[in-house]
Amino acid sequence: MQPDSGAPARRELVECLAFPCSPMRFSSVNQLMLVLAFLLAPSLALGQEAAPAPAAEAGLRRTHAVRAAGAVKIDGQLDEPAWDAPPVISDFRQQEPVEGAPASERTEVRVLFDDRNLYFAIRAFDSEPSRMNARELNRDATFANDDKFEILLDTYHDRRNAYRFAVNPLGTQQDALITDEGRDVNLSWDAPWLSAGRLVSDGYIVEIAIPFTTLRYREGANVWGFNLARIIRRKNEEVLWSSWQRQFGLERVSQAGELAGVEEIRRRRLLEFRPYITFGWRQGVPLIGQPGFDAGMRGTAGLEVARVGLTPSLTAEFTLNPDFGQVEVDQQVINLSRFSVFFPEKRDFFLENAGIFLFGREQINQLFFTRRIGLTDDGQPLPIDYGIRVTGKAGAYNLGFLQVQTRELGDPSVLGIPRQHFTVARVKRDIFRRSYIGAIFLSRQGGATTAYNRGAGIDAEFNVTDHFRVLTYLMGTATPGLESDNLSFRIHPRYESDRWRFIGVYEDIGENFNPEVGFVERRGVRQYFGQAAWKPRPRFLPFVRQMEFEVQYEQYDKRAGELETRQVELTWATRFRNSAVLEFRPLEDFTDVLVQPFEIRPGIIIPPGSYRFNRPRIELTTDTSRRLVARFRQKWGDFYSGTRLETSLGFTIRPNRHLHLELDDSYNRVHLLQGNFSTNLFSARASYNFSRRLLTTAFVQLNSAARLSSLNLRLRYIFRPHSDFYIIYNQDTGRGLERPSYQFQVKLAYYFSR
Description:
- The chain has 754 residues and is mainly β.
- 4% of the residues lie in helices and 51% in strands.
- The chain has a 24-stranded antiparallel β-barrel. Strands 1, 3, 6, 7, 8, 9, 12, 13 and 14 form a nine-stranded mixed β-sheet that branches. Strands 2-4-5-11-10 form a five-stranded mixed β-sheet, with no helix packed on it.
- The chain starts with 6 loop residues before the first helix and ends with a strand.
């Protein structure tokens, strides 16, 4: 009998995953790669996931899509005879305010399809149509102030992932990708689809056409997961067709109903192109990788994205010399901590199916973060030569592959930036009813400081019940000169219902864990986190919808056992029936141990030592259905060797459907033994939207801490779905810059599809 050469690795892994033992016993990423196969192998023996129970047996709702008996025009009229054929979906129930009660306003929905599109007719009745909220014309707005209707399509019927399409009464569009039942909701994803809305005397009508080329699905499947939701903003009422229980909601894909009749749907081979051309002028812009500044006219062209359907459920995408000049600038922040600030991804190419690549603790400890590709640490763009991505589903496997090459700038031996290659491979296998196990591998080849950086990891999510789940991952990196203590492990059980929430976390991050294509807030620490919340709905207070009493404990220790940070919080929050929210945190006890001097502001250095301080806070957001919404936040108390007062005030103003104003101001006044200072960050965003197709935005930021001001002006004309014409102007001035910079750009992107 041959000895089992994998036994020591398996024993090491089992011992490592036995909480709270540290996983740092793996000596290299190579060992971690060896156990990837071990961890994934058992999933092969589990067989295919159990087939979803029929709707009648599971108590889920089912409706049918019907083939259209004629042409359907998307105009908000519903005057085509084809709309008489499909069954009417009308039995909506409240999630809020009265769980399970019939909706206070009637809604009717019909579903059709033809060889190209899936069609929806939404007839939303309203007993007080003059009080409906319909003010937003900007695509991908949050609809925080508007009535809204949402459609969820789980096209693989895997009860985990879905598309979400939303409209307001004017037909303004919002779309999103839902991954792992809401673990990631990608609101930045954009897809080509059509909608038209019309206000009528007794409510509103919306027609929608979603091209099948927009969706990924298995041909011949009998049913898709399907759900519908309507929000009546002035009543703060949320109604759903299925999954209306308060502990679920629309994003709980496993509780959706079913859409039958889809077995007839066939998709033509996907073939889409979106080339662009742009030209502009800039002055005073720093030359990345070179000394000096750029000025003058410039123009370029490229391919923003091309999509080719390898199968109906697997898509390849390509980009050549992409330009992201139309992306709105980052929202600045005042950072008075000693840790880096996380900024979200906004570039289109990296947002498609981004949830498949999610790995780690979002915004805190991610093995892969797309902003490390094609951007400097301060957000300046680096040219991308090409990008290739393959995403989709093959049986029970969710697959993702990404390859990107960035351009060499200047002389790499001096100040330049060398050409770099980024490769990411991701696989997730569905197991049991709603769980998965997965792995990731990534590589950066080339760099100014290190020749390469590698990363690998394994993760899993087990949904034990409808309320209890456990997430865990083990990941490691390989960097020249950092040969040990380079792993990170986390286990995260969570229980949540409408009444209770309990969360526990243990995380161990090695001193040499170095995800250069990711994001990590701190290294060489162990985190202990616990949270408990009670969320009653007091009937004796008719103006209150729900309260929440929360206690939270978080501690970071150095690997040797010394305390680094401890935070204890006690919070009382109240959600009112009109959607206003009041939160009071009487206790935010914070202990921070500095082992090195901390320069909080230029010339003001906090010396090493242990500092403990309490910073209570109060926050208020007013009724979000009003034309004027106000936000207020106040924090006060001790801060290191002195005191800190923080005040934030914001307003959202919507006088009509065309004009939208957002004003925010954040002020800090800090008194320390080492010196006093104050900061102020003011931002104003004004949008005037002539129609759903012609949109203008002005965004101003004034940052006293960085001693700079920025201005971003953008005009967007959507002359056909997914085809845009942009005019953009950016300006950065102030004493915090070596010299002012000015940029003007015109861009045209045109969408072709077969």
